[in-house]
Amino acid sequence: MARFAKFCKDMGFIYQSSEIYGGINGFWDYGPLGVELKRNIKEAWWHDMVRNPPLGPNGQEIHMVGLDCSIIMNPKVWVASGHVGGFSDPMVDCKTCKGRFRADQIAAAQCPLKPSKAPGQFEECQLTEPRAFNLMFQTYVGAVQSEDNIAYLRPETAQGIFANYRNVLDSSRLKLPFGIAQVGKAFRNEINPRNFTFRSREFEQMEIEFFCHPAESMMWYQYWRDVRKKWYSSLGIQSDNLRPREQGKDELAHYSIGTTDIEYMFPFSDEPQELEGVAHRGDFDLKAHARHSGMNEKFMYFDEERWNADAGTRATNSFKEWLKTNPPTAEVEKYQFFPHVIEPSAGADRFTLAVLCEAYTVEEVPDAKGKPEERVVMKFHPRLAPIKAAVFPLVNKDGMPEKALELYRQLKPHFNVFFDDKGAIGRRYRRQDEAGTPFCITIDGDTLKDGTVTIRDRDTLKQERVPMTEVQAVIAKALTPGC
Ligand code: ATP
User: Fold this and answer.
1) Which of 17, 78, 203 to mutate to test the pocket of ligand 1 (most atoms within 8 A of CB)?
2) CA 245, CA 225: separation in Å to the nearest integer?
3) Burial label, 459 (beta-carbon count in 10 A; 0-12, 13-18, 19+)
4) Does residue 483 have a pLDDT over 50?
5) What is the average pLDDT across 409-433?
6) Which atom, in ligand 1's list, is nearest to the CA of 207?
């Protein structure tokens, strides 16, 4: 992982945050290539899940909308969600080395004084009993730093969605089932940030809360598990490296009816690790906010269509009036109920790391003279590649640079393209291989005669001659979502 992190730094994918001051554990910066990669991931997610989600199990349209909530919210949100009371990992401290370790991961941890042993195995270790440790970052809002002004940096984006559930329903006139999506930063004061960006203290999530009728919730749980797994495959993650794992009863959060972790075989571990959790959360969140805000009605869903369809010989058309006659509970719940929620919750940084690991390839290819040489190539899916195409003049004379610039300027408004006229052409190709650029387009002597260029495919190394006027269409085709 250290070698890989160095490669990521050298190429401008990921840097340690505030490195000039020795860094800060659990925080990372994305460089010029990394920021494009992560943006492409978030945009692919938004495009495929929010704007264009796959049809439902019965071929129905899926209705999705987005939100962008504040990072700091009223702290009561975190009381209602259970994070103030319970968002903690049991921790064990060592009085000798002052290290702090997650109690459930102690066997896999290293003793800082004796790295070949786990904490507790070295005779000098003095471990405490496991204690709760809240993972939320705390701050104060306003000038006064008092108990009354405590606020938290959100540890997940989901709660902003629940808190706005009624606003979204009222302003967008959605009907069940529907989803609300959000991409944004989350903060957790992780005890043991590790494995590069895998476990960070500041990270980004891509979350969906999908609201549905309780009777249909298992169908939607299945739907989202399938959709989310396929999404990773559609972006080039090999199925051998992906594992959907249904959590055992003992792992499930107390409110969860079922959770499937979609895991990826990261090179730093012998076991696949979580990329995303798809959780069936039942009606836990909406009920919790209804209870804590005292606004029960706001969090319940009234199925107007069903109410109207069942009108029959009912004396009143007002649901409120009808309730006064105290019909049996089951009858009321036909029309008014707390929706159930399916939550596919993915980490943008974890997936970026998985994409980097998956793409990183070292292979032998023949050099210009046919001799085998090693090349490092990032085999990104074209949709995710930071740079889509590089444009080169073969040599800097005979009108080639001008023609290359013309093509570069033609492509630039449509894709992130790169112009390079420096150094030997072979070296320019290698540099783009390391950046993961799917296409290199070279302007040569023939271009000036017949208007054709060569397009070199990053993975097959094949070069094809195509009319310069078709280059844009070739790139656009490779970027068309297949999801
Ligand atoms: P883990 O078990 O790895 O701590 P979690 O189950 O606490 O993760 P969730 O609360 O379900 O994670 O968060 C949803 C997603 O957010 C995770 O699947 C992961 O992709 C991402 N995520 C959570 N914690 C971190 C972190 N510390 N660093 C980077 N990404 C994270």
Assistant:
1) 203
2) 10
3) exposed
4) no
5) 95
6) 14
Query: Do 104 and 90 touch, CB atoms closer than 8 A?
Result: yes
35 to each of 12, 13, 44, 455, how far by Cα in Å?
A: 9, 7, 14, 26
Q: Ligand 1 centroid to 219 CA: how many Å?
A: 25
Q: Is 154 near ligand 1, meaning CB less than 6 Å away?
A: no
Q: Which amino acid is at 121?
A: Q
Token digits of residue 319: 């649901």
Interval between CA 100 and ligand 1 midpoint (Å):
19
pTM of the full predicted structure? 0.91
How far apart (Å, rounded) are the C-alpha atoms in residues 130 and 413? Answer: 56
Q: Pairing relation of β-strands 301-302 and 258-264? A: unpaired
Q: Contact at 8 Å (CB) between 451 and 469?
A: yes
Q: Of all helices (H) and strands (E), which one includes residue 379?
A: none
DSSP H or E stretch at residue 445: helix 445-450
Of 189, 196, 345, which is best to mutate to test ligand 1, by the most ligand atoms within 8 angstroms of its C-beta? Answer: 345
pLDDT interval class at 481 (50, 70, 90): confident
Distance CA 410, CA 469 (A): 10
Q: What is the pLDDT of residues 114-156, one digit of tens each?
A: 988 999 999 999 998 887 778 899 999 999 999 899 999 999 9
Q: Whose CA is nearest to atom 11 of ligand 1?
A: 277
| Alpha-carbon gap, residue 300 to 169, rounded angstroms | 11
Alpha-carbon distance 370 to 355, whole Å? 31
Query: Is residue 71 a contact partner of residue 184, using CB atoms and an 8 Å limit?
Result: yes
Distance 143 CA to ligand 1 centre (A): 33
Q: Which two tokens stand for residue 300?
A: 């319940």
Residue among 194, 225, 350 to mutate when testing ligand 1 (max atoms within 8 A of CB): 350
Q: Is the CB of 228 under 6 A from ligand 1?
A: no
93 — pLDDT class (breaks 50, 70, 90) = confident
Would the CB of 350 count as within 6 Å of ligand 1?
A: yes
Please give the distance, rounded to the nearest whole angstrom, from the Cα atom of residue 275 to the centre of ligand 1: 8
